[in-house]
Amino acid sequence: MLDEAWTLAAQRGWDRVRVADLAQRAEVSRPSLYAEFGDRAGIGQALVRREAERFLTGLADVLDRHRTDVGLALQAGVAHALDQAEHNPFIEAVLNAARGGTDALLPFLTSRPEPVFSGAWTLVCAWLGDVLPQVDDDRRTEAADLLVRLSISHMLLPPPEPGTAPARVARAACAVLGIAPPPAPPPGHGLTT
């Protein structure tokens, strides 16, 4: 059911997904959908929760892949988030609709703390605590907050110069942490996750 909801939301935007269409595509009855999720909002919440879990798993992998260079890891993490916003059809549909002021799933991705904002913040805080135990807790917390908020901001309103956001956000977080920033990538080179 969630696979079909993902496909319909990616194709149409969540605002245009009807429970009847979802039931038909998933080959289940509408009462079955309501029994499983409660209502349309429950389907949306479950869909966002599942997508958030996938996103956070990918982010954790990216951070761990670069854990010997914290600045580079943070830059790669931001690049991963922005890449998902651009290339994941579901996230892209939600963000495109949100830019037009219409998508009902955006609150699940931004203003409601769970699962995306708090999940990403918790993940980054824990990762920073693991790789930078010598840095004060308050600085790690502030850096994690900055990383998550600026990444979401860049997802919603991409910078005028594509590809610059990961390095800029990582430099800001490194300044908060009091560590060396990652080396600037050569012009025209984006960081791959």
Automatic annotation (TrEMBL):
<dbReference type="InterPro" id="IPR009057">
    <property type="entry name" value="Homeodomain-like_sf"/>
</dbReference>
<dbReference type="Pfam" id="PF00440">
    <property type="entry name" value="TetR_N"/>
</dbReference>
<dbReference type="GO" id="GO:0000976">
    <property type="term" value="F:transcription cis-regulatory region binding"/>
</dbReference>
<dbReference type="InterPro" id="IPR001647">
    <property type="entry name" value="HTH_TetR"/>
</dbReference>
<protein>
    <submittedName>
        <fullName>TetR family transcriptional regulator</fullName>
    </submittedName>
</protein>
<feature type="domain" description="HTH tetR-type">
    <location>
        <begin position="1"/>
        <end position="55"/>
    </location>
</feature>
<keyword id="KW-0804">Transcription</keyword>
<dbReference type="Pfam" id="PF18556">
    <property type="entry name" value="TetR_C_35"/>
</dbReference>
<dbReference type="InterPro" id="IPR040611">
    <property type="entry name" value="AlkX_C"/>
</dbReference>
<dbReference type="InterPro" id="IPR050109">
    <property type="entry name" value="HTH-type_TetR-like_transc_reg"/>
</dbReference>
<keyword id="KW-0238">DNA-binding</keyword>
<dbReference type="GO" id="GO:0003700">
    <property type="term" value="F:DNA-binding transcription factor activity"/>
</dbReference>
<keyword id="KW-0805">Transcription regulation</keyword>
<feature type="DNA-binding region" description="H-T-H motif">
    <location>
        <begin position="18"/>
        <end position="37"/>
    </location>
</feature>
